[in-house]
Write a structure and sequence with these properties.
Elements lengths: L1 H14 L5 H12 L9 H16 L8 E7 L2 E6 L3 E8 L2 E7 L22 E4 L3 E5 L4 E5 L5 E4 L5 E17 L2 E11 L6 E6 L13 E4 L6 E8 L3 E5 L5 E6 H4 L1 E6 L5 E7 L3 H12 L12 E3 L7 H13 L6 E4 L22 H10 L3 E6 L2 E2 L4 H8 L3 E8 L4 E6 L4 H19 L3 E4 L10 H6 L14 H16 L7 E3 L11 E4 L7 H16 L5 E2 L17 H14 L5 E3 L14 H16 L1 H14 L4 E2 L1 H4 L13 E3 L3 E3 L18 E6 L4 E4 L5 E3 L2 E6 L7 E4 L3 E4 L13 E6 L5 E7 L13 E8 L4 E4 L13 E7 L16 E5 L4 E4 L1
Parallel strand pairs: 18-19, 18-28, 19-20, 20-24, 24-25, 25-26, 26-27, 38-42
Antiparallel strand pairs: 1-2, 2-3, 3-4, 4-17, 5-6, 6-7, 7-8, 8-9, 9-10, 10-16, 11-13, 12-15, 13-14, 14-17, 15-16, 21-23, 22-23, 29-30, 30-31, 31-36, 32-35, 33-34, 33-36, 37-38, 39-40, 40-41, 41-44, 42-43
Helix pairs in contact: 1-3, 6-7, 9-11, 13-14
């Protein structure tokens, strides 16, 4: 009886985290090994019960109270009853918190945060049971008895706070390994909304993480990015690399928490905005800026699973150019090495007789080439042998469903292995043949069935269980480093199936992986893309049309699949990266498309290219200002609660409200028979223009937006300035010498125009130019600033066709026949009266 009570009491104490780890370390072996039954003495059993009762009755915080503290120029270290806590003042609005139950913190550099911080001045005071750290922007209060931290504005208004049961470290056994779970819990008021956490194909179709959970383990088809944005004006970065979880509805949806399955310390960063743009700016200040992509990377990528030969790739090139369809990239996907083992890095000569000439032919047609290269090696290749000899292979295998072999991952956490991996790909493929971009496929070393094996493996840097999520981060790190060193005149572009915090600095675009061809899968892409970008990763894309249909290619000639592809293509035209990929012929010239489908696809392809001055200027802001192109509505309308849980609308830059049609309205068994519309909410506080008709509508209302097959509902915020270029067939075909400037009156607005040399790194030396367009709505004046900066070949003179949108005048995709005013601009400030 006593034994049963003792066991129950102990388990309850552990579950509620009300027993300290010292007592746990003494008693747990006895309980786990059933040795307690050998304690025959009633007095001994009673003593143990008393100890556990004390543990039960002592408040949770009793073993985490602050005993003393020590101040250094950039941090305060608190000695606790058990363990340590450190508050580091990285900047006035960036705070790092570390907590451990052990006698010292881990001495290891962050793989994610790479900033070299400057000291930010602060002061510390004591008041009524708490310590208060004050910076120029924040008041940080630490409870002496619980070590719980409250973040507030300088006026005392609370931004967020840790729960009283806040930071925990508890023993655990994962995949047979003894380790510790680490967790931090925050209070979450009812009116808070939460965004970020990466890209998850099994998403619930919600966008707001308030009240819902998310697995944050890197698995097949995920991008688990532990970055969170709150409408309360703050962001969090959870700096742990093991498999983790986010719980968004703790204690009746009043709290949320991060939990990682392995670690010896809590480590997180707090960012204060309050605007989302500033939070992302701080995140990238901490983890690295996104470099500029070449201008061609913002055009159309044409890909297919898979092109089988050099002849086929060149035929795709010819069909695009001969039919005058805009395109910038053609992609060579996997198994160009067949029948050689994976990792051979050989383009089979029988199918690719002269890869270098193939790339030269693409370049002559102003088309770039991207190739898929995997981090996996089959036995029997020289590359495998070289990596094995230097200790650069892991014991993690990939079940190759094509060749029915178990192929081996190299160790991306090992710097020498990364260098060798790059050198092999450089000499065999990338530099040898002059490829322009690298598709990084299968960069998560398991596909769902090998998780325990991965956790039990050892990387060069440490146990797999502790570095579970950072394989793709380190993989892209090595490739980017090598590319910058050995191909200095060509901007890097990598398409990766996995991402982690910090990957943006490695020129990595997150792709949402092998998704199914269906409206359900398409519908889930929209919130995935929005939240991936809200996680600080600026470039995201999906397989337009979906990768496969029931493990094979769909019949694209059927009306229901034409509708799916059309709607997905419309959405893709308003994603940061615009990319067609998957099984079955789906190029824009394909015979699978009927006349109407071809016309609609070409319409949106041309619109993407007409918007190139707008898009490339936004890309300039991504690099120079840490901007976000694909924007959750809370970036711009955080004070409108009606936008908090809308999963399928977003802003594309400052002007376009994009509303993808993710329901099958016209064909198939799910098509509706009613009017073909989709619901659109227009955020409050602004007037909105229908892009297609010029109709002006008030914000704060939900409408049934017309959605015929050739229309993606698009609305432009009043005050927007949208520069549009001429019709072109590739991104750099014509200089921006003649620009149509569309102005949408009804509010003041600005737009910063950006230009550089399009494809080198001279912009890092300041060789780029900008000028600012400012619309004064009341005065009906457009102010064009002086041009700042310069670069070789920069235009000295240009023409602006200024169009004041009014109904049909200035609406739709075509070039406006008659501008309101034609302006000659030579780089000097000027005022245009309209």
């Amino acid at each position: 009886m006593l034994l049963c009570f003792l066991s129950w009491l102990f388990q309850s104490a552990i579950l509620k985290m009300k027993i300290n780890c010292y007592i746990y370390s003494i008693i747990n072996p006895l309980l786990m090994q059933n040795k307690i039954s050998g304690i025959k003495s009633f007095s001994t059993q009673l003593s143990l019960i008393i100890i556990l009762l004390i543990c039960w009755l002592i408040p949770t915080w009793s073993n985490a109270a602050i005993k003393s503290y020590q101040v250094k120029p950039d941090e305060v270290t608190f000695t606790l009853d058990k363990g340590l806590m450190k508050v580091i003042i990285c900047k006035d609005d960036i705070i790092e918190v570390k907590y451990t139950i052990f006698n010292e913190f881990l001495n290891k550099p962050s793989l994610v945060v790479n900033s070299k911080w400057q000291y930010a001045p602060f002061k510390i005071t004591q008041n009524k049971g708490s310590y208060i750290i004050t910076t120029k922007k924040l008041k940080i209060t630490i409870d002496i008895t619980t070590n719980a931290i409250t973040y507030a504005k300088l006026n005392g208004e609370v931004i967020t706070s840790e729960d009283q049961q806040n930071k925990t470290i508890s023993p655990a056994t994962i995949a047979g390994i003894n380790t510790f779970n680490v967790s931090t819990q925050f209070n979450s008021p009812a009116d808070e909304a939460l965004y970020g956490l990466g890209c998850h194909p099994l998403d619930s179709l919600s966008i707001n993480y308030k009240g819902r959970d998310q697995d944050l383990a890197i698995r097949y088809m995920t991008g688990a990015i532990p970055v969170l944005l709150s409408t309360k004006g703050y962001g969090l970065l959870w700096d742990n690399y093991s498999a983790s979880n986010f719980y968004g509805g703790v204690d009746g949806n009043t709290k949320f928490k991060y939990v990682s399955e392995s670690g010896k310390q809590v480590d997180y960063y707090f960012f204060y905005g309050p605007d989302f743009d500033h939070i992302i700016d701080l995140y990238r200040t901490a983890t690295g800026k996104a470099p500029m992509y070449a201008k061609w990377a913002f055009g159309l990528f044409q890909s297919q699973d898979r092109y089988m030969s050099q002849k086929e790739i060149l035929s795709v090139k010819d069909n695009y150019r001969n039919n005058h369809i805009p395109v910038d990239v053609i992609v060579q996907d996997w198994y160009y090495w067949d029948p050689l083992p994976i990792g051979s890095h050989v383009m089979k000569p029988e199918r690719y007789p002269d890869p270098k000439q193939m790339l030269a032919d693409l370049h002559k047609a102003n088309i770039h080439g991207m190739i898929s290269i995997w981090p996996v090696f089959g036995k029997g290749t020289n590359n495998y042998a070289a990596l094995q000899k230097m200790g650069g292979l892991t014991d993690i295998t990939w079940d190759n469903v094509v060749t029915h072999t178990f192929d081996t991952y190299y160790d991306a956490h090992y710097p020498k292995a990364r260098d060798l991996y790059w050198a092999q790909a450089r000499d065999s493929l990338i530099k040898r043949y002059d490829w322009d971009a690298w598709w990084i496929d299968q960069c998560e070393p398991d596909n769902g069935s090998l998780l325990d094996a991965r956790k039990q493996s050892n990387f060069w840097i440490g146990k797999g269980i502790d570095y579970f999520n950072t394989y793709s981060l380190e993989h892209t790190k090595g490739i980017y480093k090598g590319w910058r060193k050995d191909i200095p005149g060509k901007r890097a572009f990598f398409l990766a199936r996995q991402s982690f915090a910090g990957a943006q600095r490695n020129a990595a675009t997150l792709w949402s992986s092998d998704i199914f061809c269906g409206f359900g899968a398409f519908k889930s892409q929209v919130p995935q893309g929005i939240n991936a970008c809200a996680s600080g990763i600026p470039y995201w894309t999906s397989d337009i049309g979906g990768y496969q249909y029931h493990w094979t290619a769909p019949d694209w000639s059927k009306p229901e699949f034409r509708e799916l592809f059309t709607r997905w293509f419309q959405f893709g035209a308003f994603c940061p990266i615009f990319r067609v990929h998957g099984k079955g012929e789906r190029a824009l010239f394909s015979k699978n498309w009927d006349t109407d489908t071809k016309a609609t696809l070409l319409k949106f392809d041309k619109l993407r290219y007409r918007l190139m001055p707008y898009i490339y200027s936004l890309a300039g802001r991504v690099t120079t200002e840490n901007y976000t192109i694909m924007r959750a509505l809370t970036f711009d309308f955080r004070n409108d609660p009606n936008v908090y849980s809308i999963p399928d609308q977003y802003m594309f830059g400052p002007a376009f409200l994009v509303n993808p049609v993710t329901e099958q309205l016209y064909t198939g068994k799910n098509a509706t028979s009613s009017e073909k519309t989709r619901k659109v909410y227009l955020p409050a506080g602004f007037k909105w223009y229908n892009f297609w008709t010029g109709e002006v509508l008030n914000g704060g209302q939900t409408l049934n937006a017309p959605a015929p097959m050739d229309i993606l509902p698009l609305y432009i915020k009043a005050g927007s300035i949208v520069p549009m270029g001429p019709d072109v067939e590739y991104a750099t075909e014509k200089p921006n010498s003649k620009i149509e400037l569309r102005i949408y009156p009804g509010a003041n607005g600005t737009f910063k125009f950006y230009e550089d040399e399009n494809d080198n790194y001279n912009y890092e030396k300041g060789q780029y130019s900008t000028f600012t367009l400012t619309w004064n709505d009341k005065a009906h004046k457009l102010v064009i600033s002086d041009t700042k900066g310069s670069f070789p070949g920069m235009l000295k003179n240009r023409t602006f066709n200024v169009v004041l949108v009014n109904g049909e005048h200035g609406s739709n995709t075509g070039i406006t026949a008659k501008a309101n005013k034609i302006v000659k601009y030579s780089g000097k400030a000027m005022v245009v009266n309209l």
